[in-house]
Automatic annotation (TrEMBL):
Pfam families per record: Beta-lactamase
SUPFAM superfamilies associated with the record: beta-lactamase/transpeptidase-like
Source species of the chain: Frankia canadensis
Protein name: Beta-lactamase-related domain-containing protein
Beta-lactamase-related domain sequence ranges: 18-275
Renumbered residue ranges of the record's region Disordered: 23-42
Gene3D superfamilies named among the record's database cross-references: DD-peptidase/beta-lactamase superfamily
Taxonomic lineage: Bacteria, Bacillati, Actinomycetota, Actinomycetes, Frankiales
Length: 292
């Protein structure tokens, strides 16, 4: 496998271990279900080393919740609390719940308040509705179907997943060519929910609007931001305090997964956007198949 030129700079990052994978959706190539084939354009770092995902876990948790919605366990508009907050509002950080804790800080739908508590509440709701522990449901509905053999939930749904680069590139491939969710549900998850809400993007300050989908942060026109200046406004994904991120730019059909062993900080604010811009600039239509 060749490394993209854009990935050479990560060897100079101030971290002990970093692993990156870039994937692309091929034009004209059909996958096994008739959709676009996804190929790995470049990779660097260990593929099988487990990393803490921190808040990138929310993408996986949201996928499990959305699968439960499609299976009829509950609806996006069901009021599951606290108060009248709905499943959709909890997914979109529009429930009014604080970052941590139980007491609402705002009425549902009034502000975008980034909330671990909201995602952990969703874990309770799913377990109550299905009778299946959230960790088991996540494994059965997302990890096993995608072949994410090294992924596991070892903490709360909001930030408790550990996984390898090999695992996360399988999930990124799913996001480029969805098979586990219907097109309508996937579109709802990756476009702005409750438009116009302002709020604080952790690590990057107040954004107005602070666009979010159903579990997926939407890049929009936020500045500053952890993705690149060349990423389209339609880019969706998440970053984590553990020094991790995953974005998908559907306009160009690219995804980038980055995992490392240094917590997010000023170093990441400085180095992540240039990496994303380099990836977008150097990606080529020719690709290599991802290794298992």
């Amino acid at each position: 496998m060749r490394d993209m030129e854009a990935l050479e700079r990560v060897s100079r990052w101030p971290v002990e271990t970093v692993a990156v994978s870039v994937l692309g959706r091929g034009d004209g190539d059909e996958g096994p279900a008739g959709g676009s084939a996804v190929r790995e354009l470049g990779q660097t770092g260990p593929a099988q080393r487990p990393f803490r995902l921190a808040s990138v876990s929310k993408l996986l948790a949201a996928y499990a919740v959305l699968i439960a919605v499609e299976e009829g366990a509950f609806g996006l508009d069901d009021e599951v609390g606290p108060g009248p907050a709905t499943v959709a509002q909890l997914l979109a950080h529009a429930s009014g719940l604080p970052f941590e804790g139980e007491g609402p800080r705002a009425a549902p739908g009034a502000r975008r308040i980034y909330s671990n508590a909201g995602f952990d509440r969703l874990g309770e709701v799913l377990t109550g509705a299905t009778g299946i522990a959230f960790a088991d449901y996540l494994a059965e509905s997302v990890f096993r179907p995608l072949g994410m053999d090294g992924a596991q939930l070892v903490g709360p749904p909001s930030h408790g997943v550990t996984a390898t680069l090999a695992d996360l590139r399988l999930f990124a491939a799913e996001l480029l060519a969805p098979a586990l969710l219907s097109p309508a549900t996937f579109a709802a998850a990756t476009t702005v929910a409750f438009p116009g809400l302002a709020g604080v993007l952790p690590g990057f300050g107040r954004q107005n609007p602070n666009d979010w989908g159903l579990g997926f942060e939407i890049r929009g026109h936020k500045t500053p931001h952890w993705t690149g200046t060349a990423n389209s406004p339609e880019t969706f994904g998440h970053f984590g305090q553990a020094g991790t991120f995953l974005w998908v730019d559907p306009v160009v059909g690219l995804a980038c997964v980055t995992l490392c062993d240094r917590d997010f900080g000023e170093w990441a604010r400085q180095l992540w956007p240039p990496l994303s811009d380099d990836v977008l600039a150097s990606a080529r239509p020719q690709a290599v198949n991802p290794s298992p």
